[in-house]
DNA sequence: TCTAACGTGCAG
DNA sequence: CTGCACGTTAGA
């Protein structure tokens, strides 16, 4: 109906052509006009460029000076051609410019002047991601249609007109939503719209945008990797294959308790645009779960591991499946929505969008109203069904974390028994390259029995008692899922819970926080479902300083977002199938990360460290990384290769690492030489199971002039069979050495250790803590 | 007027 | 599909 996009585009194009002709005689790239704004851009159809919110964490950051875009900037010595903001500074909630105004009344957003959330919504400017019109919802005349609010982007929706007309947005996340989509390695890259079958006739089968990406087309299944196999060899269901839904990624986060939100007097702009009456995209009913349950699909996996936290994105669910209510009923009273309702488990008012919600009904003009929006209801039913199955399993999984099943899952679904490494066939299925391959001379079959079972080796290593077989990477469609980070609320979390009667709870947030500290991560996830306020409180990064996804078989985009939201200081992704893109995306968004564990990942993934910057990283665990050898170490440790003038920072990207874990790698002196040069702060070094390490290596590390000589305090050379007694002599040169682990070094004798102790006793008293494990006594 | 950088098209 | 280039916009 309304505005023809294509028409506008053509106009813009022609105009820009003219401009280019005038302004740029040599269209080097043939770049057509980058911005397509007609002169009368306040009228409908005009695309409004968005601008920084200036409030989000990213906006408040300073330029890293190290990313791709910083390096391009003139101020960092680059040519300045790319004109992009620093990766670390890419706004997560780009806003409409100040000059934006309503096409109808020509006025700016007026939400600031209003108290009531609903009023706020009605008087805030909303930009349609389809027709680009910016209006006050209140100014719209259409009452019989609903707008679909895009809660991933401030002031963005699919306006009632477009929505009513069944249009689908050409932009998935609405205008202005960049989110580093042009970053190398970004997970957020915009998908080009599918070749427009865009006419209305296709509306029947039209799914919301995100499932329209080509990878979701049926034929894609032909090209997809085979489904993950359960140990029984049966393909496990891949809900993500079926559930390509336009997800509202953080529906939980923001909308879990809309009614509470409504009562909360909040200055959170995201509150305003999510009033109960807004129709949200119900597809997300599955959106989160389908990701989430992937992580939960292998409850048995965890049993093999002492897991601090099963990354149960339960808070991301934002639904009110009956079973979840069961789960929560003990502590809150939650009206139960229909089974595929997607939002709000509100302890007080229940799904605000549900028919019974008083808040919903009171709006005389719910311009934007929750409404089921399944273009294909048949399909959606199927999806819901499948989804529920998966969700049930997720719950089960979450429960299993504490070994306390919440619910018995009568699924006949293939179970996911522990993938014991010794099961060669499984291994073969999962990682053919490991089946026959040996690394570092140690057969994998032996390696995974390594450390703690054979020996109490190593410091702090994640020990694969059974080398878990990291599952195959999720299908590309999962990894590349457009997945955005919901803009974190700009306002600080509320200090107190709002009660039903409008009063506030007596206990302040900080007191709650003290209580939350006693909870496990899983319990926190449960708490996050209680209400909006708890959701925010429980997401406090103080509660999530350590995130452990060790052996989590599938790292999903949702999990990545969850990680970002929590901004952990320590992140363990060991033995996961994280991809390079995911890792790079992640690292770029975790500027405060200090501990990164990638043991057992593939080099393909770990190589993300070569191109990302993690300046605060102190601990890097890359033990048993497949394919990590000398050349790769060189890539990892080398300074950025960009040697253009002005590119001053030629320091190692990992220069601040003081704890480096390289167990089980096929590295030689070449790597050690680099390490001793590039890591001046290196204090703890794990080289156990490195069969190429020998006395000469130790000599290198402790040679005069190297920083490691003085910085090393703990070194692990256990099971390094080429290391001999002679190495002990080299260690005498180390000024700070406190622990030398030579256990299971065949060529190291106890006599030599005792001699070392005797000789050192004059200056530094050592003792044999265990056989060939030397430790400073004081 | 200047700087930052958004959004888009195109080459590879 | 990805990364680059750049016109143009937004804000200071």
TrEMBL record:
The entry's keywords: DNA-binding, Leucine-rich repeat, Metal-binding, Repeat, Zinc, Zinc-finger
InterPro entries on file: F-box_dom (IPR001810), FBXL15_LRR (IPR057207), JHDM1_Histone_Demethylase (IPR050690), LRR_dom_sf (IPR032675), Zinc_finger_PHD-type_CS (IPR019786), Znf_CXXC (IPR002857), Znf_FYVE_PHD (IPR011011), Znf_PHD (IPR001965)
Gene3D superfamilies, per database record: 1.20.1280.50, Ribonuclease Inhibitor (3.80.10.10), Zinc/RING finger domain, C3HC4 (zinc finger) (3.30.40.10)
Domain CXXC-type: 46-92
Comp. bias (Polar residues): 342-358
Domain PHD-type per the UniProt entry, residue ranges: 99-165
Basic and acidic residues compositional bias, start-end: 189-198, 206-223, 258-270, 294-313, 404-419, 428-437
Gene Ontology MF: a single term: DNA binding
Acidic residues: compositionally biased ranges: 7-16, 281-293
Chain spans, region Disordered: 1-46, 166-382, 402-437, 456-476
Domain of life of the native organism: Eukaryota
Keyword Zinc-finger found: yes
Compositional bias per record (Basic residues), positions renumbered to this chain: 365-374
Pfam families per UniProt: DUF7885 (PF25372), F-box-like (PF12937), PHD_4 (PF16866), zf-CXXC (PF02008)
Name of this chain's protein: Lysine-specific demethylase 2B-like
Organism: Channa striata (Snakehead murrel)
């Amino acid at each position: 109906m309304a505005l023809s996009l294509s028409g506008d585009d053509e106009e813009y194009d022609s105009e820009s052509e003219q401009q280019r002709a005038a302004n740029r005689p040599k269209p080097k790239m043939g770049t057509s006009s980058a911005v397509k704004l007609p002169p009368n851009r306040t009228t409908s159809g005009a695309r409004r460029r968005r601008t920084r919110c200036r409030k989000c964490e990213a906006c408040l950051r300073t330029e890293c000076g190290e990313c791709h875009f910083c390096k391009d900037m003139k101020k960092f010595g680059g040519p300045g051609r790319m004109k992009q903001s620093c990766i670390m500074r890419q706004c997560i909630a780009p806003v409409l410019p100040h000059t934006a105004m309503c096409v109808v009344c020509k006025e700016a957003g007026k939400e600031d002047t209003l108290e009531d959330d609903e009023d706020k919504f009605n008087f805030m400017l909303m930009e349609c991601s389809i027709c680009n019109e910016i209006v006050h919802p209140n100014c719209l005349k259409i009452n019989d249609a609903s707008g679909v609010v895009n809660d991933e982007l401030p002031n963005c929706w699919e306006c009632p007109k477009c929505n009513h007309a069944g249009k689908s947005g050409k932009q998935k996340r609405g205008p202005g939503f960049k989110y580093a989509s042009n970053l190398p390695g970004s997970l957020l890259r915009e998908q080009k719209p599918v070749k427009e079958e865009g006419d209305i006739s296709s509306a029947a089968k039209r799914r919301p945008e995100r499932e329209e990406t080509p990878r979701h087309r049926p034929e894609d299944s032909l090209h997809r990797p085979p489904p993950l196999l359960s140990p029984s060899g049966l393909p496990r269901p891949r809900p993500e294959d079926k559930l390509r839904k336009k997800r509202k990624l953080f529906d939980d986060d923001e909308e879990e308790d809309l009614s509470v939100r409504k009562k909360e007097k909040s200055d959170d702009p995201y509150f305003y645009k999510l009033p109960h009456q807004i129709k949200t995209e119900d597809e997300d009913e599955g959106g989160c779960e389908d990701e989430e349950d992937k992580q939960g699909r292998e409850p048995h996996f965890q049993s093999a591991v002492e897991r601090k936290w099963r990354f149960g994105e339960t808070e991301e669910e934002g639904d009110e499946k009956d079973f979840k209510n069961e789960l929560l009923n003990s502590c809150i009273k939650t009206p139960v929505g229909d089974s595929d309702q997607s939002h709000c488990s509100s302890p007080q008012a229940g799904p605000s969008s549900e028919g019974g919600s008083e808040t919903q009904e009171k709006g005389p003009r719910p311009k934007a109203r929750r409404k089921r929006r399944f273009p294909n209801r048949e399909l959606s039913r199927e999806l819901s069904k499948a989804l529920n199955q998966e969700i049930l399993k997720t719950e089960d999984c979450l429960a299993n974390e504490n070994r306390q099943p919440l619910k018995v899952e009568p699924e006949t679904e293939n179970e996911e028994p522990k993938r014991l490494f010794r099961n060669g066939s499984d291994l073969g299925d999962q990682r053919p390259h490991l089946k026959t391959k040996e690394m570092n001379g140690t057969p994998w079959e032996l390696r995974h029995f390594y450390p703690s079972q054979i020996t109490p080796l190593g410091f702090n290593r994640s020990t694969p008692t059974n080398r878990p077989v990291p599952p195959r990477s999720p299908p590309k469609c999962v990894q590349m899922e457009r997945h955005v980070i919901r803009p974190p609320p700009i306002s600080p979390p509320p200090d107190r819970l709002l009660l039903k009667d409008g009063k506030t709870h007596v206990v302040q947030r900080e007191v709650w926080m003290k209580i939350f500290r006693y909870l496990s991560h899983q319990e926190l996830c449960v708490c996050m479902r209680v209400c909006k306020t708890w959701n925010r409180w429980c997401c406090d990064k103080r509660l999530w300083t350590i995130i452990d996804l060790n052996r989590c078989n599938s790292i999903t985009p949702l999990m990545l977002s969850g990680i970002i939201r929590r901004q952990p200081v320590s992140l363990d992704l060991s033995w996961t199938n994280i991809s390079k893109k995911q890792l790079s995306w992640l690292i770029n968004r975790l500027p405060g990360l200090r501990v990164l564990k990638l043991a057992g990942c593939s080099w393909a993934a770990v190589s993300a460290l070569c191109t990302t910057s993690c300046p605060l990283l102190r601990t890097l665990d890359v033990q048993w990384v497949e394919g990590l050898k000398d050349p790769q170490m060189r890539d990892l440790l080398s300074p950025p290769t960009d040697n253009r003038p002005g590119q001053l920072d030629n320091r190692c990207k990992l220069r601040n690492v003081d704890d480096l874990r390289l167990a089980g790698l096929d590295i030689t002196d070449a790597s050690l030489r680099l390490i001793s040069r590039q890591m001046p702060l290196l204090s703890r070094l794990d080289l156990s199971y490195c069969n190429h390490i020998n006395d000469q290596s130790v000599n290198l590390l402790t040679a005069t002039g190297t920083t490691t000589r003085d910085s090393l305090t703990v070194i692990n050379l256990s099971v390094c069979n080429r290391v001999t007694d002679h190495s002990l002599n080299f260690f005498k040169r180390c000024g700070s050495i406190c622990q030398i682990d030579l256990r299971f070094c065949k060529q190291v004798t106890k006599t030599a250790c005792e001699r070392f102790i005797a000789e050192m006793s004059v200056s530094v008293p050592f003792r044999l803590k265990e056989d060939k494990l030397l430790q400073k006594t004081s």
